[in-house]
Design goal:
Blueprint: H1 9-20, E1 24-26, H2 27-36, H3 40-49, H4 57-68, E2 78-80, H5 86-98, E3 105-110, H6 113-122, E4 123-126, E5 132-134, E6 153-154, H7 161-175, H8 177-183, E7 188-193, H9 198-208
Bound molecules: adenosine monophosphate.
Length: 212
């Protein structure tokens, strides 16, 4: 799943993963957990994440290769927020090809910039289970707490306005070129208009891709 911050990759990736019974790997989630656990990876990644910059390609590629090598990935997987650069896409494709695999489909989540900024400002994440809410679009039925596990809901540090603007700039400079890269590659490339309610976008996603 490819697209700018706030486009809905996390929310819809979780839903699709549950529907299809396969794992979703979000490099942002893996990195945030490493930061929380204060591991060497977390300490290195934090310097970049706090500024809304990208963590170096070799670091991210290494961690994606590790998760994709795990037994839980053997029946398929969804990638969220990776690849984010042409070098990451090339690294991923070479690694998959060496194992006789390839991506089935790339979904590009497209939404206008004002909407992305509004959504990111409204995003809340459960500190307990990672469930994603949005105070505008998809609030928790339990108010300030998670309706699934009762955990506290927080705003991500890098969702603050200043950092979001930099993340959008980084997206345009480093990740947008991937759209062209995939559009001209042999991987099936589909575009999702990620505007409207959560259910509308999810239904749109299911018309483009369902459990394969
Ligand atoms: P996300 O949760 O996908 O918005 O990612 C949060 C932050 O983690 C990003 O702003 C980057 O600093 C870092 N990050 C996540 N995925 C990648 C990636 N594929 N390449 C480089 N940095 C990443």
């Amino acid at each position: 799943m490819l697209g700018p911050p706030g486009a809905g990759k996390g929310t819809h990736g979780d839903r699709l993963a549950e529907r299809c019974g396969i794992p979703k790997y979000a490099t942002g989630d893996i990195l945030r957990e490493a930061v929380r656990n204060d591991t060497p990876l977390g300490r290195e990644a934090k310097q970049y994440m706090d500024k809304g910059e990208l963590v170096p390609d070799d670091v991210v590629l290494g961690l994606v290769r590790d998760v994709l090598s795990s037994p839980s990935a053997k029946d398929g997987f969804i990638l969220d927020g990776f690849p984010r650069t042409v070098a990451q896409a090339e690294g991923l494709h070479a690694w998959l090809a060496d194992r006789g695999m390839s991506l089935d489909v790339v979904i590009y989540f497209d939404a206008p910039e004002e909407e992305l900024i509004r959504r990111v400002a409204g995003r809340r994440v459960c500190v307990g289970c990672g469930m994603i809410y949005n105070v505008h679009l998809d609030p928790s039925a339990a108010g300030e707490l998670c309706e699934r596990c009762g955990g506290r809901l927080e705003t991500r540090e890098d969702d603050k306005a200043e950092t979001v603007r930099n993340r959008l700039r980084v997206y345009r400079d480093s990740t947008e070129p991937l759209l062209q890269w995939y559009a001209t590659s042999s991987t099936s490339f589909r575009e999702l208009k990620a505007v409207g309610s959560v259910d509308e976008v999810y239904n749109g996603l299911l018309t483009l891709v369902d459990c394969l």
